[in-house]
Specification:
It contains 1 helix and 6 strands. A 4-stranded antiparallel beta sheet has the order 3-2-5-6. A two-stranded antiparallel sheet has the order 1-4. It is elongated, with a radius of gyration of 14 Å. It is mainly β. The protein starts with a strand and ends with a helix. The N terminus is likely disordered. It has a single domain, classed as Sandwich (Jelly Rolls), CATH 2.60.120. Helices cover about 5% and strands about 40% of the residues.
Length: about 80
């Protein structure tokens, strides 16, 4: 899975065949795509996702962009889960 959105927080976990899970938080800033992978037959399950900005410290490049930290895309989870 390749993520190329501007600012995105993804809570995902890789579920092994036995009932245990590893939870990881992945963050990608604009122009820095990430790739999510699980070993073997494990599956990535998206728990939550946000496309936007909720913090002025994460992906802090342009001071003008830091003015709005209440930016959230309600459909981000739906988009990421497809």
């Amino acid at each position: 899975m390749r993520i190329t959105m501007s600012v995105i927080n993804v809570m995902a976990f890789s579920r092994a065949p036995i009932p245990m899970a590893v939870v990881r938080r992945e963050l990608s800033c604009e122009s820095y795509p990430i790739e999510l992978r699980c070993p073997g037959t494990d599956v990535i399950m998206i728990e939550s996702a946000n496309y936007g900005r909720t913090d002025d410290k994460i992906c802090d490049s342009d001071p003008a962009q830091m003015e709005n930290i209440r930016c959230y895309l309600p459909d981000a989870y739906k988009i990421m889960s497809q």
